[in-house]
Design a protein that fits this description.
- By secondary structure, the protein is mainly α.
- Helices cover about 75% and strands about 0% of the residues.
- The chain is built from 9 helices and no strands.
- The two termini are about 20 Å apart.
Length: about 190
Amino acid sequence: MSETTTRSEPRGVALALIRMTALGEAAHHAAGGEGPPPADRGMYGALTAALETWQGLGSLRPDALLLIEWLATEWAGYRRRLLGQDQDRFDSWLGEFGDEVSLVQRHAHPAGPTCLELLSVAASARSGDSPTERAAQLAFPFLAYLRPDSELEDAREIALSFALWAGQDLSVLMQHDAERIAGYTQARAR
């Protein structure tokens, strides 16, 4: 049983997915690999197991939404730190990255543009926003993306995109140091 299936609350799943991705990035970097690392079937399986658990409990939509919120919020934080906490640079990056993603994902049901809309909502949240307000703002694009009879697959696609992007940025922030990544994610999980 994996870390994500034994700790299937959305926050724990989000941090476990980010950790797996960041450690995979660090190992790939340490081995001198160029480009993205090979697909992590373990991370994909752990995500699928968590989503299937929630589906079996009848809580796929709310738990997947919380998972997405955690992933988007963590990634926004990592990206801001990489950009020196400068809001203008973050906004500029978000626009450029959004254009790039939209160009790459030109098919009938693209996850990327939905991810960027969700990231924009998560990144613009203020400390005074109520959790209910933020959840409603995230729920609209997320639930609109889910197709009937494909909810698990669609939720997995969004979560997978966020986990990969967040893990890559966390690995860069931690200078591809596996011990730092492990320590940071363990501290965040508490």
